[in-house]
Input
Amino acid sequence: MIGDSVEELIEFAERIGLRREWFQPKSSPHFDLTTEGRKIAVFHGAIELSQRAFVMKLREIRIMSESWV
Output
């Protein structure tokens, strides 16, 4: 699971019961989800992306994070 920002991602993850220590900050900040975790995330408002849209979003996030440095 990814988010528009790290803060948004962690906040959402905690809201759906994921633990902060499960956050994976390397390369592309994300949380891995089980099938059940994915269902819960979508139920609470996460948007499922196609593989292509997912890759495009990751690129966008990387570009944004590079501009913060």
About this structure: The longest helix spans residues 51-68.
